[in-house]
Records
---
Amino acid sequence: MLLFNTQNELTAHLNSVSNESTAIGFVPTMGALHKGHLSLLEESLKNNQINVISIFVNPTQFNNAEDLAKYPKTLVEDMAKIKTVSDDIIVFAPSVDDIYEGNTVSKHFDFDGLENQMEGKFRLGHFNGVATIVKRLFEIVKPTNAYFGEKDFQQVQIVKKLVEKLKIKVNVTSCPIYRESNGLAMSSRNERLTNKEREKAAIIYKTILEAKKRFVSKSAKEVTEFVQREFIKQPDFELEYFQIAEEVTLLPCIRKSPHKKYRAFIAVFVNKIRLIDTISLN
Ligand code: PAF
């Protein structure tokens, strides 16, 4: 397994082992890897000759300094986990300076309104930060295929829009959510939960599953009110938002249309730790 800490070293290596017809698979991450990330690597290995994973906690996508400071940094453990998938994976773990060259700011993007919903509304500037780093990483790695987890469904839509608008030559694939045995969506932030909180956080998936059942016969408003009532009963949890949105535009569902695909999105705080989840509704 090869580890590169600078873009120059990575670029020199990729130039020496690939040509224009080499398929490069890429999994961008912020580390603290879990089975969900490893499943993205497995998908990449199936379809590409060279496989790269980046581990970089991107400061410009955090709108909360405490969240950034407390984000788990576990490179040694991450490397060991990657090795369980394959030895033949290139790890790119650059420093903030190497990536941002002394100017740690986001560029500004227009994603036709996708950026103003949900995560974009509650984490101001978040998607400009995500797009800035994803664009930069795509320029460095020049992947043929890039893999993202569906838990961050809005992020996947944003990355697809970025690729479309900037005409970047990469196929973006989203892979299914991995869940713990109690249903909690796997996330690097789960590391920060106590065992008890982790156990109790099963309520998030349980509630959106119930929301899915109710959406068959109830309106989006009624389902939303049900979810809000469920979380009022949970003093350890603070519901930031629950939204039923149309999958393509991410606009809130006001009146159901039989021709549209809908999805529920939720963000919940457990003792200042922010967890998100999503489920397809039809
Ligand atoms: O999903 C993540 O872990 C991050 O947002 C990403 C895509 C690696 C960009 O920093």
---
Amino acid sequence: MNLTDLTAAELGKKIQEREVTAVEAARDALARIRERDRDLNCFITVDEEAVIRRAEQVQKEIERGELTGPLAGVPVAVKDNICTKGLRTTCASKILYNFVPPYSAEAVERLEQAGAVILGKTNMDEFAMGSTTETSAFGPARNPWNRDHVPGGSSGGSCGAVAAGECACALGSDTGGSIRQPSSFCGVTGLKPTYGTVSRYGLIAYGSSLDQIGPIARDVTDCALLLEILASQDPKDSTSLRREETRFAQALKTDVKGMKIGIPRDYFGEGLNGEVGKAILNGAEVLRDQGALVEEFDLSLVDYAIPAYYVIASAEASSNLARFDGVKYGFRAEAYEGLHQMYKKTRSQGFGSEVKRRIMLGSFVLSSGYYDAYYLKALRTKALIRQAFDRAFSKYDVILGPAAPATAPRLGESLKDPLQMYLGDIYTVSANLAGLPGICLPCGRDGKGLPIGLQLLGDCFREDRILQAAYAFEQAGERSGAYV
Ligand code: GLN
């Protein structure tokens, strides 16, 4: 048996009980990566020596009784847009191919304080823009269940690594679904917290008003435990919030009897794959059997979420990415004449085409002649979407639906038509626009054996409810096992 086939909580327990050491866990994870990642390409950077050194140090602290938490000694993979001090952080872009951050993200600091061993940096869509991990400058990652298919994106490397048993858990980031959609495609469990719950300090910004870091793991318990570690108010991030209650694992103790679950009728129209739709409705039945009250309702405005999201996310991206100019860090073009040409050549050569598309789109919607027509209108739409969710959550505890309209597409299928790819985010982006927490967990397979994910959305600050429903569902059905 490989130790990375255990969940993080199971592995952490064995380490606490001195059954195995943090060093053995790290060695097993590294061996798995060596064995499987040549094909899967889920990792961009792994510094094996540093991992072992850190595991040895953690093991000493465990033996001295200084680290007693549930994840002490557990190897955790980190998406490559989250800064790690001294460990290269590329955002899967040529423009940051050599960037070694002088500091760690707050989320990474918190993991390390809890005794986690950072295993390496995972592959992603360039600057988290994409839904397949194919826009990575380091080549696409592959889906462990079928290597001809994508793992989803943009946190495809993190989700693929967890599904492949290269690690028990990982960090991802979610701006418009990038934790939930690849979790769905890879058959793992991923949670996007309420906006402001996890500090964004050290997360390289895509759409700052939408971005959240969150856990990806093999079960709901691990997600709850990781979120307990990650959630904090951080003075270094002005949008981070003080949460009254962050003992998320407590929520797993309550059953779903009497819980009110709403299914948006408008999620089940044209465009949803039949097998996926059926699996989701079966999933709802599982919760109904356990005493939840399940009914359909009209959420409204569903068709407006994608255009509003792409306008806002691109606007923020175009501003956030202005800092990559060849002066301060990362790649700089080799030959140029004067400062302006240096900027132009650096950015032309350093960014990939999807990133350039977003910068152009974002600059366009923010330009003076179009600001009102596009950007302001998108902000108004965002407010209306938030209101639609407020109405829904006055009636329901949890909203249940698919995470993606279909299972993982084949490699190369999506990039041909970016607009079509954007439409695939229909079920995930509205949670980011409204700041809501969402979890995606496995709920079956399609005819080809590819995983299908069930998404549960909660009102702001109600991670407890989605965790509670997700845990009840998981207990009733399959747990997402590592592939063999
Ligand atoms: N697919 C979406 C996009 O490309 C979401 C990405 C994300 O959540 N980082 O913008």
